[in-house]
Recover the amino acids of this structure.
DNA sequence: TTGTAATTGAGAGGCAATTGCAATTATATC
DNA sequence: GATATAATTGCAATTGCCTCTCAATTACAA
């Protein structure tokens, strides 16, 4: 079974790049979290392991991880980019609760198909898509009037 | 027929805010464009009318226009937020060509329905959603291999 | 072991967006 | 109309995310 490490190493090798301890630390940090993350979360996590590892390295490593297909960018919120790892996970879309921040992941095969259909209609070659629904989760909309 | 001006004025009044010449100028600037825009485009446009109108005012006005339902934020691209006006337009989704920047708008009723279905399933009260597909438009994918 | 090209941390810098402040101005009330 | 007052403005400084530069370091191949 291919691990994220293997996959990343292969990708780097193919590109003539190096599999450095720093990059491995970042990768491990990301895959030890099991949820969406932003740069700062990773920085704090990784900083415990290696006090010298800088934010710059994280910013430089993330695009490589995206390119290698291990993580993807998700929604951009509050001025910050946000990512999630996709290795071993299949594609899905998101609902984000604008009150409590809860994230619900879902996948609807029919929607995926319809998207492809639409693309075909416009002669559009889709590479990636992102569907995000903002609103209130069950708990936050319960009973009350919402006051957006 | 209610104009954007009317709607904005009503909204401001309701909130106890003022319908200033600056706000009207920004509004006019936005509605004189018939496409997606970012803050700078509006600034340049509006600046011709009123040399003193500052970026700060635009940044302060946009959230009011969003709140009043006249415009919406769309995708966040190249580190900048992007908006479009929705007054008189119906909801639609986007395809963005990552080569030439072309934007294709589309609306698929079935996708909209399925989204609502999914929300219901999770007890989620949706307020707004955004579907963006990135890829290559007809012209940019034509013949060539794409090399993302 | 050695050469070399990639990588690193640190800090400077870029840029979108926000904010504090003193002056200005729209609106309600007289 | 005139007046009071609370919102609004432009400006400039600032914040915060992210990128870049550069000299020193390091992984990897020969």
């Amino acid at each position: 079974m291919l691990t994220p490490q293997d996959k990343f190493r292969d990708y780097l090798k193919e590109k003539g790049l190096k599999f450095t301890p720093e990059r491995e630390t970042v990768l491990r940090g990301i895959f030890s979290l099991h949820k969406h993350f932003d740069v700062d979360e990773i920085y704090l996590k990784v900083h415990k392991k290696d006090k010298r590892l800088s934010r710059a390295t994280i910013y430089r490593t993330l695009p490589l991880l995206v390119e290698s297909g291990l993580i993807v960018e998700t929604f951009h919120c509050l001025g910050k980019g946000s990512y999630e790892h996709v290795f071993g996970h299949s594609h899905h879309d998101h609902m984000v609760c604008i009150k409590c921040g809860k994230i619900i992941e879902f996948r609807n095969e029919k929607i995926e198909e319809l998207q492809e259909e639409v693309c075909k209609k416009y002669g559009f070659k889709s590479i990636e898509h992102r569907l995000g629904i903002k609103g209130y989760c069950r708990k936050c909309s319960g009973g009350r009037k919402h006051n957006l």
Remarks:
- Residues 7 and 53 of chain B are 22 Å apart (CA to CA).
- The first strand of chain B starts at residue 71 and ends at 73.
